[in-house]
Structure to design on (542 residues):
């Protein structure tokens, strides 16, 4: 019976940090060697980070990756290392090289290049044409890269070449449906080939995507041997028994079933933390309105960065309720963040006074309402500049979808944590966060903020439902139209009022121009606005 000891480096390897990534590989390789591993594996495109996008078009960047790979190979002794990297040999490949005894022993090329959703591999890479196999400690292993395992042919070819297990390195971004899809695909590949699978995934936030780790060990019969913790950097240990093609995880944390809100919350926290830290900002600030969106954003920011790195600003106007004032103050004081109250009333009135001659003869409308929001945006951007803290936009996906947001007003911000979170889910996350860790006050988000009717407070007695369908109905239509790509007729056939569906779809299509100017935010659904959903601004399609 042959047994192989494996170390899996479920870590963050930031995009563009080639030298730092190589240094991390070197350190983790030393740990794996000291721990008696025969093989240590690293995620997809370890050296460049994923996705490196148009950095791959720069020869100097490719040369730096190649130089670091060669240096790593020269330093690799006493353990075999599998390292992901871009491989340039006239054309560029998404590659993984096996480093052994001071040299690059072989290089595998990714065969299946995804070009859907957030993936754009065909823009940068050429496909590989063969599944690589090698022998480590007397056991034959196939080497595959991410999308290769989602297709039947690469795994089948590795098995036909004698592979007993498949080492799959990945940069697979998280969304709320991803884990079930991964496990189904891995189970199917194992059952088709009889090969066990070690599925190693990247972890960390990168612009609009968040990688969860969630590394998996799958036995040769398709059963799940172990699940790694999500959104956690860790070196994982396992042993493979070739006699029955099974895995034994070594001291992996027990993974109990977590509610969907817990995993989503962790994804948003990781996205905020990595975006701020990787871009070198000391902290964040946000407008705290006394509404649920900004309250949840504040809770996420504090959980991601700590209260010392968060500033909250309440900017009341003549329409701001006492409930909003009290809710914002109570939450800011309870969480211990830097808190300011800056009235917009005088500044807003000065704008109105200046514009009155040009507005003459026209009744008051959304122009005056939006001007309040834009006054706040100007003040928040000034504070961001002065204090060097990145401004977080607090809008949610429901608002972004139908354009219930003000350009250069509440859309101001460099990062939007809730951009891919529907309003109904905002409520679920807020309730879960209060239940998960209440603290001395019994809440993180004041219950009165959660329970109140949502309102932009830009006119007297305003509520969101003055302008929009109830959020339960709105979100159900949006999810069918955006994630489901259903037609209006298909949505109506599911019991929704035709006039409401037409109105909602019209708003989605009409407001593409706003979304193109919105801040990036973490992708957490199967179809996010941004790099994944790119509709034309100018279009006759309705």
């Amino acid at each position: 019976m042959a047994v192989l000891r494996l170390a899996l480096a479920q870590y963050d390897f930031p995009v563009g940090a080639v030298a730092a990534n190589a240094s991390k590989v070197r350190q983790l390789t030393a740990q794996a060697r000291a721990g008696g591993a025969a093989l240590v594996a690293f995620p997809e495109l370890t050296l460049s980070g994923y996705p490196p996008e148009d950095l791959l078009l720069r020869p100097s960047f490719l040369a730096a990756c190649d130089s670091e790979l060669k240096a790593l190979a020269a330093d690799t002794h006493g353990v075999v290392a599998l390292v992901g990297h871009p491989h340039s040999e006239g054309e560029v490949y998404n590659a993984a090289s096996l480093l052994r005894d001071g040299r690059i022993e072989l290089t595998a090329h990714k065969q299946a290049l995804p070009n859907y959703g957030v993936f754009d591999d065909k823009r940068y890479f050429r496909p590989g044409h063969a599944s690589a196999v090698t022998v480590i400690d007397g056991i034959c292993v196939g080497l595959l890269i991410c999308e290769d395992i989602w297709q039947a042919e690469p795994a089948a070819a590795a098995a036909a070449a004698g592979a007993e297990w498949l080492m799959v390195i990945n940069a697979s971004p998280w969304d709320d449906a991803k884990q079930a899809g991964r496990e189904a695909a891995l189970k199917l590949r194992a059952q088709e080939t009889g090969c066990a699978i070690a599925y190693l995934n990247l972890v960390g936030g990168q612009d609009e995507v968040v990688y969860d780790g969630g590394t998996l060990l799958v036995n040769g019969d398709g059963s799940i041997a172990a699940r790694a913790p999500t959104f956690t950097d860790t070196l994982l240990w396992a042993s493979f028994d070739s006699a029955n093609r099974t895995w034994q995880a070594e001291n992996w944390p027990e993974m109990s079933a977590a509610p969907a809100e817990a995993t989503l919350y962790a994804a948003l926290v990781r996205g905020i933390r990595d975006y701020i830290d990787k871009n070198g900002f000391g902290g964040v600030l946000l407008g705290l309105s006394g509404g649920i969106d900004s309250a949840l954003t504040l809770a996420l920011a504090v959980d991601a960065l700590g209260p010392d790195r968060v500033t909250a600003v309440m900017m009341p106007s003549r329409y701001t309720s006492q409930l909003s004032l009290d809710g914002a103050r109570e939450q800011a004081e309870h969480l211990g963040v830097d808190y300011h109250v800056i009235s917009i009333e005088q500044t807003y009135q000065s704008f109105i006074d200046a514009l009155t001659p040009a507005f003459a003869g026209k009744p008051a409308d959304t122009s005056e309402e939006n001007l309040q929001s834009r006054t706040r945006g100007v003040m928040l951007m000034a504070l961001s500049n002065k204090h060097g803290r990145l401004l977080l936009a607090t809008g949610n996906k429901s608002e972004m979808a139908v354009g219930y947001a003000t350009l250069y007003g509440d859309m101001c911000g460099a990062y939007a944590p809730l951009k891919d979170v529907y309003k109904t889910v905002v409520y679920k996350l807020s309730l879960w966060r209060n239940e998960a860790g209440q603290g001395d006050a019994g809440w993180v988000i004041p219950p009165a903020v959660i329970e109140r009717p949502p309102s932009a407070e830009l006119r007297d007695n305003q509520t969101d439902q003055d302008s929009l369908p109830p959020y339960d109905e709105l979100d159900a239509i949006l999810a069918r139209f955006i994630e489901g790509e259903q037609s209006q007729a298909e949505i109506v056939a599911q019991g929704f009022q035709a006039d409401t569906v037409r109105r909602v779809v019209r708003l989605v299509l009409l407001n593409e121009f706003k979304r193109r100017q919105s801040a990036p935010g973490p992708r957490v659904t199967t179809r996010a606005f941004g790099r994944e959903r790119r509709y034309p601004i100018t279009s006759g399609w309705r």
Remarks:
- DSSP finds 17 helices and 19 strands in the chain.
- The CA atoms of residues 439 and 495 lie 43 Å apart.
